[in-house]
Amino acid sequence: MPDDQNDARNGARSQGFATRLTQLGRPGPRAHGFVNQPLVRGSTVLHPNLAHQRSQSALRHEQALVYGTHGTPTHFALENAIAEIEGGTRCQIVSSGLSAITTPLLAFLKTGQHVLVPDNVYGPTRRFCDGMLAGLGIATTYYDPMISADGLEALMRPETAVLFLESPGSHTFEVQDVPALSAVAHAHGARVMIDNTWGIHFFQPFSHGVDISIQAATKYIGGHSDIILGAVTVATDEDWVRLRDASMALGQYASPDDCWLALRGVRTLGVRLATQMEHGLVVARWLAERPEVLRVLHPALPGSPGHELWQRDFTGASSLFGVVLKPEFTVEAVAAMIDGMTLFGIGASWGGFESLVLPSTGSIHRTAGSGRFGGEIMRLHIGLEDPADIMADLERGFACLAGAAGG
Ligand SMILES: Cc1ncc(COP(=O)(O)O)c(C=O)c1O
User: Fold this and answer.
1) pTM score of the predicted model
2) What is the pLDDT averaged over residues 77-97?
3) What does the DSSP assignment read for 83-101?
């Protein structure tokens, strides 16, 4: 067991979030007094004798030092920090955000069972369900993310083992009624999993009925667009054993260097999120007034799908949202707008310090009828730049949009 001063189970939750971010996963005396957790790389762990090696190996569900794939003190420190940020008890770090989705799905589903997945789920999650899970004889039903409890009840089958949630969902940002949907799943004995990457600490999944929470730590936790990492957090020992066994069976592993960088990200997570929320809202409200814009899909803005649920269940907002342009603007005109912007980067991912833009066309694949918003959608990630510069860049883009539309 590493000697963290503050792990997820040492009861420091009475402190404020900003304070805890400065304390989580910090080292004890073994770091020789240095402030930060040392970076421990390694495969082999040497033991003083065979009895010690055997006793440590028996602790596969604990933070024991057995072999590199079981984790190093660097992994454990990050796991404890994320478990606490999510409000759970134990966390497993895995190689990517996508692995943090596929690992629990494989852990909690078996052949003949059924999973319910929101229609707006992150594209690679859908591909995994339609490909790997279908190949294993596990059926997926996609549902409208704004489904009511009664609507979900009608989709439950005796073999439904997992209700998957992503709230707000990819590209169209619908906020789901997590407590109501979780109650239906639990009444049928199904586990509830959520991709909580957007919600991060603004949404506390375990106080809203969720059993297993997923973070693409690549995004806001890493915060600097330089690592790929995932985290799966649970609240009960039973779920932990199942998750840990699956993760070990799959050989899940993440580089300790990336874990160390993620721990560094944790220290500034609070200030980055607060600033990015503020900048994101300034830009989103400004966009909502633009004549070219039909609507802004930002959970904190009235009229965005599930805004009332966001008000009820969230304490803040991330800086990733969608902009629906008026129907006269074609895919080509939107491409001209994006190409005309110079501050926004064109690229996948989000949660870093820099602003990014992508068209959502081609990324929205729906089969349950959701996702029609009346025009082309752009996804914006607002970074730490000055909002005035961000809006000036969008102005440049709007000029190109008008030019391409012949206006
Ligand atoms: C909502 C969501 N979940 C998960 C992921 C996957 O994260 P990673 O890129 O670390 O695999 C992404 C990546 O864009 C995402 O947007």
Assistant:
1) 0.95
2) 97
3) HHHHT-SEEEEESSHHHHH
